[in-house]
Amino acid sequence: MDWGLANRMHRMFSPATHNTVMLAVDHGYFMGPTHRLENAGATVAPLLPYADALALTRGMLRHTVPPTAQTPIVLRVSGGATILQDDLSHEAVTTSMTDAMRLNVCAVALSVFIGAPHEHESLVHLGDLVNDGEQAGMPVMAITAVGKELEKRDARYLALACRVSAEMGAHIVKTYFCEGFSKVVEGCPVPIVVAGGPKLDSDRAALELARHAIDEGAHGIDMGRNIWQSDHPVPMLKALRAIVHDKATVNEAMDILAAEKGPEVAAPRARRPQPS
Predict the structure, then answer these.
(1) Which pLDDT does position 173 carry in this prediction?
(2) What is the pLDDT of residue 183?
(3) 86 occurs within a structural domain
(4) Is 148 a catalytic residue?
(5) What residue ranges of the chain have pLDDT lower than 50?
(6) Closest CA to 76 of 46, 52, 53
(7) 20 to 30 A from 23, CA-CA: which of 76, 206, 232, 251?
């Protein structure tokens, strides 16, 4: 691995734990103004200091992140379909490596759609992007997308998708957690980070997901909605960091979450009777 590529990887992954807490805010590229991401700049600003990397598109990077920010950027470079289409796999590379280098990002990311109608194109795009990345010293993260078919998220399918992505040259793979996840990790020779997926029923459920993922071999998380759609996004991100980097249990992370919430969620005190 060349120095530049290795340097970018080490900026995203802690040298102490070899793990990362990525914050995903790239949802608008196919979902539009998602709930609580309508004003992306306002959502991202308080979270930036606590993220090891920020995943977003070039448009949102240029318009919502100040150039003084020190958080490493994972640049979404694929697109071409929206949620109005039944087939979300019809994507292509929409941002050049030249622009990624101009933006001084730490990695580029695109979706691969294994088993979908445009599987072939997505894998060829991944291979081409890795070629460009190796030449530029830029890590490539493959995202094992399942489109609208969430039932595909089982170990057999994800193990296939992750291994194929690594075989094509991806330096990082983002995928879903599943039962038997350790088998997915075992078959993938590059670091795996786990997606949060749609907003879960509770903050605790998201913390449990992170804890299980790390326990079974993930090198971090790349969460979005389970952080910034939480009623307490900054405390939630801090609690997730404790799991990923400090080996906190779910109960310990819940204690951090409760403590960080502070007086903003304290129960209202009963009013004292006013003198008549």
Answers:
(1) 98
(2) 97
(3) yes
(4) no
(5) 264-276
(6) 53
(7) 251
From residue 181, give the alpha-carbon distance in Å to each of 80, 102, 207, 223: 30, 37, 16, 17
Domain presence at residue 268: no
DSSP secondary structure string, 245-257?
HH---HHHHHHHH
Residue 271 in any domain: the answer is no
Q: What is the CATH number of the domain that holds 117?
A: 3.20.20.70
Q: Which is the catalytic residue, given 148, 152, 174, 183?
A: 174
What SS3 state is found at 213? Answer: helix
Two structure tokens written together for 255: 């204690």
272 is a domain residue:
no
Residue-level pLDDT at 43: 97
What contacts 115, CB < 8 A, 6 or more positions away? 152, 157
Residue 90 is encoded by which pair of tokens?
């019809």
In whole angstroms, what separates CA 258 from the centre of its chain? 24
Dist. CA 61–CA 73, nearest whole Å: 9
Evaluate whether 78 touches 92 at the Cβ level (below 8 Å): yes
- State the pLDDT at residue 269: 32
pLDDT for residue 114: 95
Centre a 10 Å sphere on the Cβ of residue 150 and count the other Cβ atoms it contains: 10
Q: How far apart are CA 25 and CA 27, in angstroms?
A: 6
State how many domains the chain has.
1
Give the model's pLDDT for residue 147: 67
Structural domain for 200, as ranges: 3-263
pLDDT at 148: 67
> What pLDDT is recorded for position 267?
29
Nearby residues of 42 by Cβ (< 8 Å), 6 or more positions away: none
